[in-house]
Write a structure and sequence with these properties.
CATH architecture of chain B: Up-down Bundle
Helix content of chain B: over 70%
Largest interface: A-C, 81 and 78 residues
Shape of chain C: elongated
Bound molecules: flavin-adenine dinucleotide, protoporphyrin IX containing FE, iron/sulfur cluster, FE3-S4 cluster, FE2/S2 (inorganic) cluster
Distance between the termini of chain B: 42 Å
Distance between the termini of chain C: 62 Å
Helix content of chain C: 25-40%
Number of strands of chain C: 7
CATH class of chain B: Mainly Alpha
Structural class of chain B: mainly alpha
CATH superfamily of the largest domain in chain C: Alpha-helical ferredoxin
Order of helices and strands of chain C: EEHEEEEEHHHHHHHH
Chains: A alpha/beta, B mainly alpha, C alpha+beta
Strand content of chain B: under 5%
Oligomer: heterotrimer
Number of helices of chain B: 9
Shape of chain B: globular
Number of strands of chain B: 0
CATH topology of chain B: 3 helical TM bundles of succinate and fumarate reductases
CATH class of the largest domain in chain C: Mainly Alpha
CATH topology of the largest domain in chain C: Fumarate Reductase Iron-sulfur Protein, Chain B, domain 2
Order of helices and strands of chain B: HHHHHHHHH
Strand order of the largest sheet of chain C: 2-1-5-3-4
Number of domains of chain C: 2
Number of domains of chain B: 1
Structural class of chain C: alpha+beta
Largest sheet of chain B: none
Strand content of chain C: 5-15%
């Protein structure tokens, strides 16, 4: 074993993706599909696949593998597969259809996505994504997804996230909902046909690995508490992102890392855990009782002007009474050419800087600062439409943003036509996730990972409207074509529920549940989650420093130790027990949080959503170090399995080679 | 249900039209009543139209009531535990009174048939049974001089008006003709007008008699 | 704000439930209704009492997971989902009753949590367009007139929350079903299965124990997505013409 770095982790062997294709990029995917073996229909019926998650990735995969004739078992923790968090996506989905004849192409989408990811993604994967984007739209239209249309009856697109072409397909502000309903209906159709068996309100709590291969999962029936074992020939995780490690995020309150974290503990590497995306235009927190943050479409920045008072003493005054000269339009001031339209990470970071500077607006909330001192801070900046309303008239603004204004009014009780909106950044998406090869297979053979749950194709930063694209590409087109190469090795050895590895997995789940129910502590699960969230947000949020991250790791360790002695979970296992569900999730977040900090600490560069204060240009911009960090950081679980033990994780680097796109430093000044 | 309901509405409208003839005096009304019975002769036997109508109505009542009670039963089974508190957001009084209103109408019709068609009891001491049997006009006017008869009719007509108000719009919805916002508004409007027309139209003769606006 | 909460407590599907009264103080009007319940649960847990179970996930009005009968109104006094209802819609000192959706087709799982899988089974019986992955024609090969696309979209915004059933005096699921029939029936892609779809879905709906619709209209008034009543008429229309669509 190599020695400990920072006293925290060791470095292992380099990682090479065994399924990586080579040769001309345009044909890599085509050639891979041809090379992957087929499974004949009669054999498919004998092969079983478990799919955890029914979002865009899991729902699409379930429907497609069901149609193909495999025996599919599908799981989700909600009461219906239609409620997966993909439903909340608002903006749209990218596709290189070039319907507007504005020069879009697969290559251009490929290029934009690689650049947007700050050159930290794989070229082959992103190119495949761009290729499949086109098929996604066709598939969804055939299913009846009601995309926005023009008067001529053809599909409409818009430009999104600062790209120069119109390639974003949308269904008003509910694109994710409509795409998910399409996948859900396709899945329900297979359920009726008997090819997919659906398990709702079932939470995956452990992966079953037999002889090094993923062979099943342990789930808890959330209604009866029964711990069930499900075995299969392959397992697919499509369980979404882990933004809820921050407690407050735009994710659904039930979003969790448990499925992927448990798999990580069983040997799956975790890729780039520190890459999180923070979205600049969310509705600010109203108080310390808040349970989640709500995203407002980024399009608001097209017409709204962002400002804070110049003088901290003005922060609690009515903004309308403040004269122009008392306002600081800081984005326009610092980035004269892009102004309010700078990328998400920059807009977010500057908002935080303004508030840290004491010039935030809105209610003041007490928080613990990096120095450990509690203070009151206002976390919000104005997004002002007064100028736009003067220039375009209120009806035009209503037409464009009416539904967003209504949503804002409903949540805050303020009228955004009269007073400026208040916004603040919030955690939105996690680019990190379980490491997978080009074939979406993790480092555990037989376990595939799709959608936001894998470390995905977005590098260090995801462009708007490309997560939906990736989820559906993975589910409909990629996974069904790569998993057959694995399944072609069938038949697999039969295993029974009393195989020692299965029993071990099951027992560990039962033990953990019993531990929680008998721990008799005096702090609620939520209070731990909130505290973890504030540590993560403070030290591993928009801006990260070596000192802060080290402090955070200490704090997380202390909190975790306290959690395991002091957590209080009432009730019993044999019933719907929501506190018990949350306890398990928070326990896993407490471990993940540490790994995120270690990853953030080791990556001494700024890239995409990861900003290290030590690595910035003279004007405070993110500075990459391609010579040192052009790799995927894939982490191997280092600890002894056990309730509290987490040893030093092992870092494996997968080098990123750019053959078709030249790496450049971005600039928005 | 919608079809039988519409049949009822048509019948009721025609009946109302006939009743209004009470206003034109004994001759006109008795003539009309007679005409009803010989209508279509010799193509139809005497009372032919009346009997066709009676059969259609009878079958409709059975179907309508059967459907109504089935729906009622289904609704009760669909929510066997009731809410402790349940506020209606917009349901009209008419829509919520459908079932009891229907029952009210059913009871009224039974009473009404005994009153005017089957038994024709003499309830006003100022007239003789012979007079009543001879002239439907006298039969009607005699009754409506008695306050409680008028009251029964008034209450029944209010129930009927409410039933038609919701029923007619409901029937368009059930027949699939209210599948756009404008069609919905039109259907609701027509239902309200027809309902109001029925109530007013039916009530003019009895009230006119009660308040002595019609001679004799 | 200080509130009196009367909440339905029921240990499991077969247990007998009853209303329980709780007092809660210090609620901010900015909080959402569910955050208020979160707080109640924190307090109950501290006291060693079983917290109140209720469903929610996205907490932004789109997943359809939340849904409570609040003082007799589905999703409470505003036209929105329970998670988007804020405490400023109530007054200091109010008494609020909180009950689960009541319909025999939605059995109570625990406290305020109900089982809405009957909706999934309605969709299974025909609420889809059969389009196997990979078999789709080019998206632009079938234009859809904008008014039809818009109407399909309006209907497709249903979040499957079940408030329509909860509010309907007959506990009928017609609005939910009508929304799906209208969504798919307006689109050219949905024509092939139009007749069989409506027949199968209605049969499943009735078999699941939902009540029949007598066009009362409470459903549309309670629907957080403002699905209009004309989708029910559209469903009836499709049903009446289903023979024609099947030919
Ligand atoms: C508010 C918001 C707006 C967004 N807008 C956009 C946008 O405009 N464009 C865009 O491209 N992207 C957008 N995104 C990102 C995008 O929506 C997500 O990345 C994507 O939908 C994730 O899909 P998924 O299938 O991977 O996972 P999810 O949809 O999150 O599904 C996860 C599934 O896993 C199940 N699950 C999770 N854990 C367990 C467990 N332990 N056991 C059993 N089941 C489990 C859940 O039940 C669920 O079915 C947005 C995200 C948010 C939060
Ligand atoms: C015989 C006594 C009657 C009974 C018991 C009865 C009962 C009912 C009931 C329970 C309904 C249920 C539907 C709902 O609640 O909306 C209904 C509907 C209706 N009724 Fe009646 N009713 C009777 C007579 C009438 C009469 C005399 C008329 C016409 C004047 C009428 C017209 C209608 C119409 C149009 C509907 C709506 C049908 C639909 O929506 O499909 N009914 N009736
Ligand atoms: C004020 C209101 C009404 C008056 C004055 C009235 C009057 C009469 C009269 C005079 C007759 C006998 C006609 C004849 O034998 O030639 C009659 C018959 C009848 N009326 Fe009415 N009526 C009224 C309301 C109604 C209503 C509301 C209904 C039904 C909903 C109704 C249903 C009938 C029926 C079914 C018959 C029997 C027809 C037959 O088969 O002979 N009436 N009515
Ligand atoms: S129709 Fe409306 S109330 Fe009914 S399930 Fe859909 S969104 Fe909810
Ligand atoms: S309230 Fe019920 S009766 Fe019909 S119109 Fe709505 S489903
Ligand atoms: S929690 Fe998703 S709609 Fe309310």
């Amino acid at each position: 074993m190599t020695e400990l770095i920072h006293g925290l982790y060791t470095e292992g062997e380099a990682l090479v993706d065994p399924s990586a294709p080579t040769g001309p990029i345009e044909t890599r995917w085509e050639r891979t599909k041809d090379a992957n073996r087929l499974v004949n229909p009669a054999n498919r019926r004998k092969l079983s696949v478990i799919i955890v998650g029914t979002g865009l990735a899991g729902g699409a995969a379930g429907a497609t593998l069901g149609e193909a004739g495999y025996q599919v078992k599908s799981f989700c923790y909600q009461d219906s597969p239609r409620r997966a968090h993909s439903i909340a996506a608002q903006g749209g989905i990218n596709a290189a259809k070039n319907y507007k004849a504005d020069g879009d192409s697969i290559h251009r989408l490929f290029y934009d996505t690689v650049k947007g990811g700050d050159y930290r993604s794989r070229e082959s994967n992103v190119h495949r994504l761009a290729e499949e984007s086109v098929n996604i739209i066709d598939q969804c239209v055939a299913q009846g997804v009601p995309f926005a249309r023009e008067y001529g009856g053809l599909l409409d697109n818009r430009s999104f996230g600062g790209v120069q072409v119109s390639r974003t397909f949308y269904a008003r502000g509910q694109t994710g909902q409509q795409l998910l309903i399409g996948a859900y209906q396709a899945l329900e159709r297979q359920i009726a046909a008997g090819t997919v068996e659906m398990f709702t309100r079932h939470e995956m709590l452990e992966l079953v690995v037999v002889d090094g291969k993923a062979r099943g999962i342990i789930v808890r029936d959330m209604v009866t508490g029964e711990i069930e074992t499900h075995l299969a020939d392959a397992v697919v995780l499509a369980t979404g992102g882990y933004g809820n490690v921050f407690f407050l995020s735009t994710n659904a309150v039930g979003s969790n890392v448990t499925a992927t974290w448990r798999a990580h503990r069983k040997g799956a590497y975790f890729g780039n855990p520190c890459y999180t995306q923070i979205h600049p235009t969310c509705i600010p927190q109203h108080g310390d009782k808040q349970s989640k943050l709500t995203l407002m479409s980024e399009s608001l920045r097209n017409d709204g002007r962002i400002w804070v008072p110049k003088d901290a003493a003005d922060c609690d005054k009515d903004p309308r009474t403040l004269p122009e000269e008392a306002r600081d339009y800081y984005l326009e001031r610092i980035y004269p050419s892009f102004g309010n339209l700078v990328p998400r990470d920059i807009a977010s970071r500057q908002a935080k800087n303004m508030c840290d500077d004491g010039r935030g607006v809105g209610p003041s909330i007490s928080e613990v600062g990096p120095d450990g001192v509690t203070r009151d801070v206002r976390r919000g900046v104005y997004l002002d439409f007064a100028d736009a309303i003067k220039r375009l008239g209120r009806p035009a603004i209503e037409e464009k943003y009416g539904n967003l204004f209504d949503m804002y009014a409903r949540i805050t009780g303020e009228n955004p036509y009269e007073t400026p909106m208040r916004i603040y950044p919030a955690v939105h998406y996690t680019m990190g996730g379980l490491w997978v090869g080009y074939d979406l297979q993790s480092t555990i053979p037989g376990m595939f990972v799709a959608g936001e749950a894998n470390f995905s194709d977005h590098g260090a930063n995801r462009l708007g409207a490309s997560a939906l694209m990736q989820g559906l590409a993975d589910g409909y087109f990629v996974l069904p074509n790569t998993i057959r190469e694995y399944l072609a090795d069938a038949p697999f050895e039969k295993i029974s529920e009393d195989h020692p590895a299965v029993v071990e997995a099951r027992t560990s789940v039962e033990e953990r549940i019993n531990y929680f129910l008998n721990s008799n502590g005096n702090r609620t699960v939520d209070s731990y989650h909130r505290e973890l969230g504030s540590i993560m947000w403070e030290y591993c949020g928009m801006e990260r420093t070596e000192e802060g991250l080290k402090l955070a790791i200490d704090k997380i360790r202390a909190l975790r130790a306290d959690f395991w002695t002091n957590v209080k979970v009432l009730g019993k296992n044999e019933e719907l027990n929501q506190a018990l569900e949350r306890a398990g999730r928070v326990a896993d977040f407490l471990e993940l949080g540490e790994l995120m900090c270690i990853d953030a600490l080791h990556r001494r560069e700024s890239c995409g959503g990861h900003f290290r204060a030590e690595s910035q240009t003279e004007d405070g911009e993110a500075l990459r170090h391609d010579d040192e960090f052009a790799y995927v950081g894939a982490w191997e679980f280092g600890g002894q399995p056990g309730p509290n033990g987490m040893g030093a994780p092992v870092l494996h680097k997968e080098d990123l080679v750019y053959e078709f796109i030249e790496m450049k430093q971005r600039s928005y000044k | 249900m919608a079809v039988t309901g519409v049949i009822f509405v048509l019948f009721v409208l025609a009946h109302m039209y006939g009743n209004l003839k009470l206003l034109s005096g004994q001759l006109a009304f008795d003539e009309y009543a007679h005409h009803l019975r010989v209508f279509g002769e010799p193509m139809l036997p005497k009372m032919g139209l009346l009997w066709i109508m009676r059969i259609v109505l009878l079958v409709s009542v059975v179907i309508h009531a059967y459907a109504a009670f089935t729906l009622w039963g289904r609704a009760n089974n669909a929510r066997s535990t009731r809410y402790a508190v349940h506020k209606m957001a917009q349901a009209s009084l008419s829509s919520r009174f459908m079932r009891w209103g229907g029952v009210t109408i059913l009871l009224f019709v039974i009473f009404h048939l005994i009153h005017f068609t089957i038994v024709k009891p003499n309830i006003n001491a100022d007239y003789t049974q012979a007079q009543i049997d001879a002239s439907p006009y006298i039969m009607a006017t005699a009754s409506f001089k008695i306050w409680w008869v008028v009251l029964i009719y008034v209450l029944a007509m209010i129930a009927l008006g409410m039933h038609i108000n919701h029923g007619l719009w409901s029937a368009t919805q059930t027949l699939g003709w209210a599948n756009s916002p404008s069609a919905r508004a039109t259907a609701k409007g027509i239902a309200l007008i027809v309902a109001a027309l029925t109530v007013v139209g039916f009530l003019i003769p009895p009230l006119a008699v009660a308040f002595g606006l019609i001679a004799k | 704000m200080r509130l009196t909460l009367k909440i339905w407590r029921q240990a499991n599907a077969s247990a007998k439930g009853s209303m329980h009264t709780y007092e809660i103080d210090g609620i901010s009007p900015e909080e959402s209704f569910l955050e208020m319940l979160d707080e109640l649960n924190e307090q109950l847990t501290a006291k060693g009492e079983d917290p109140v179970a209720f469903d929610s996930d996205c907490r932004e009005g789109i997943c359809g997971m939340c849904g409570l009968m609040i003082s007799g109104q589905a999703h409470g006094p505003e036209v929105t989902t329970t998670c988007q209802l804020h405490m400023r819609s109530f007054n200091d000192g109010d008494t609020i009753t909180v009950e689960p959706w009541r319909a025999d087709a939605f059995p109570v799982v625990k406290d305020l949590v109900v089982d809405r899988s009957a909706f999934d089974r309605i969709i299974q019986s025909g609420g889809f367009i059969s389009a196997n992955t990979g078999s789709a024609p080019e998206a632009h090969s079938t234009p859809v007139p904008k008014p039809k696309a818009d109407r399909a979209f309006d209907a497709a915004t249903c979040i499957g929350c079940g408030a329509c059933v909860a509010a309907c005096p007959n506990a009928s699921g017609m609005l939910f079903m009508g929304a799906k029939i209208t969504h798919l029936g307006e689109l050219p892609q949905g024509q092939a299965e139009r007749g069989s779809r409506v027949r199968a879905m209605v049969a499943t709906h009735d078999g699941e124990g939902f009540g029949g619709c007598t066009n009362i209209g409470e459903c549309a008034a309670a629907c957080p997505k403002e699905i209009p009543l004309d989708v029910i008429s559209q469903l009836n229309n499709d049903l009446r013409n289903s023979g024609k669509y099947l030919r």
